[in-house]
Amino acid sequence: MQFYFSGISIGFYGFLFLLLILPKTAGTQEIDELSLSTMVQPLPTESIFRDSAYFNWGSSIVKGKDNKYHLFYSRWKREYNFSGWLTHSEIAHAVSDQPEGPYQFVETVLAGRGPDHWDAITAHNPKIK
Predict the structure, then answer these.
(1) CA 61, 124, 94 angle in degrees (round to 5)?
(2) How far apart are CA 21 and CA 33, in angstroms?
(3) What pTM does this model have?
(4) How far is CA 110 from CA 41, 72, 99, 104, 119, in A?
(5) Tens digits of per-residue pLDDT, 103-120?
């Protein structure tokens, strides 16, 4: 689930931080009346990256020297069900002109190579810096 805060896309945990933790850590500073309901906006459909043949998970976005946004994410075929990430996950790459998308799949960048390799059966949860 994705939320927008003052025009910036934040994830579910970012939303929880704003809602639960930030007010408690404000100390003695005065806090303006904060109305999250006026700041959280619906996510545009074109910003949802979906693939009918794959589950997608754990994305990491970086802005490249080409001024495009590169999304690296875990994916596995839906035919293996949701628990298929344990044995069939791979790291894929998609590109967009804007950070909020839409993203287009480009390639699989890392997949399990089989026995005798560290990535024998799966590659999962990319973190790109």
Answers:
(1) 35
(2) 16
(3) 0.66
(4) 35, 10, 22, 17, 9
(5) 999 999 998 888 888 877
